[in-house]
Predict the structure of Cold shock domain-containing protein.
Amino acid sequence: MARAQETYGKKEREKKRLKKREEKAKKKAERQANSKVGASFEDQLIYVDENGHFTDTPPDPTKKVKVDAESIVLGIPKKEEQEEEDPIRNGKVSFFDTSKGFGFIIDSENNEKYFVHVSGLIDEIAENDKVSFELERGMKGMNAVRVKKT
């Protein structure tokens, strides 16, 4: 009967595996020797200092800050009263294609371009007309709606 061949590669892998196992056993014995089995609870505590860093010394009681529990806001804070802006804006039609039914209006206050669709028109408009309009959130940004000539 033929015997299993033990090649050089097999021998090297076996040596590596045994060496790794020995190193692991040494590390385990070292950890057990250095562990503090009888360590007190206070020795195991970790504190956080005023800067948010971990430390093994307890915090200084003189640096303690008193926080009023009622001053902590849980949830979303209430909106403060703001004066409402006039929803009606003024602008100029920079481009309008009647065959396709859409165009763009440039706001006279902030020079931003807003998309306008024929469904959002009250009056018929053409390029370079002065118009008043309101803004509404569309799928791709703000759209001009309820557009009238001025």
In short: The first strand starts at residue 47 and ends at 48. Residues 89-149 form a domain with the OB fold (Dihydrolipoamide Acetyltransferase, E2P) fold (CATH 2.40.50.140). The CA atoms of residues 41 and 56 lie 12 Å apart. The beta strands are 47-48, 54-55, 89-97, 102-107, 113-117, 130-138, 141-149.
